[in-house]
Amino acid sequence: MIRVLIAEDQALVLGALAALLGLEDDLEVVGTVGNGKDALALCRELRPDIVLTDVEMPQMTGLELAAQLLDARLPCKVMILTTFARSGYLRRAMAAGVRGYLLKDAPAETLAAAIRQVHGGGRAIAPELAVESWSGGMDPLSERERHVLRLAGEGRTSAEIARQVHLSEGTVRNYLSEAISKLGASNRIEAYRMARDAGWL
To answer: So which residues are the signal peptide here (predicted)?
Structure first.
């Protein structure tokens, strides 16, 4: 049996995925969670073969989860299942050791086949994403710039961001200014939208 953990913050989608994969004779859904932090904890506890995760989730994104699992050298293979066909996401996913990247509108049999392929040591990338990843621009942001820009996009002030990331307010403003400059944006909100649309957040 291939043991699968599903991380998805939309309850309806989570339930549907678990039910669909449960119909496969060789797949066993060993856990379902609604955020990346809980997924990381369950991965340490259950050691699933495959972690099927969305990108955008509360507390920890699917890409951050993949990076943490890679750093922790846990044996589970990560697959992204998302609505976001963004080349920046795919590039970051590959850098974090992700083995599969599929879109949510893929047929159920495609997902099951992809899980088997990844479990067997292969990769499974949606063809349309693979093509787009070669045509998209490179991510110019540093990890710190990405982090403060994401918080700014959530409506936090520089002072609030500074408290959360344990930096001075001036340093936060410098990171935001650098991100705005790199993206050619006129302000932090425009920079956030540009980076988000490109899949860099």
So the answer is: none
User: Which of the residue ranges 8-22, 44-58, 78-92, 101-115 would you say has the lowest mean pLDDT?
Assistant: 78-92
How far, in Å, CA of 119 to CA of 175, rounded?
Answer: 40
User: One-letter amino acid identity for 84?
Assistant: F
Q: Is the pLDDT of residue 136 over 80?
A: no
Q: How far is CA 150 from CA 35, 52, 125, 137, 178, in A?
A: 17, 24, 26, 19, 14
Domain 143-197 has CATH 1.10.10.10: yes
Q: Of 10-19, 69-78, 108-117, 184-193, which range is least confident?
A: 184-193
Would you identify the CATH topology of the domain 2-135?
Rossmann fold (3.40.50)
Write down how long the chain is. 201
Give the model's pLDDT for residue 88.
72
Question: In the chain, where are the structural domains located?
Answer: 2-135, 143-197
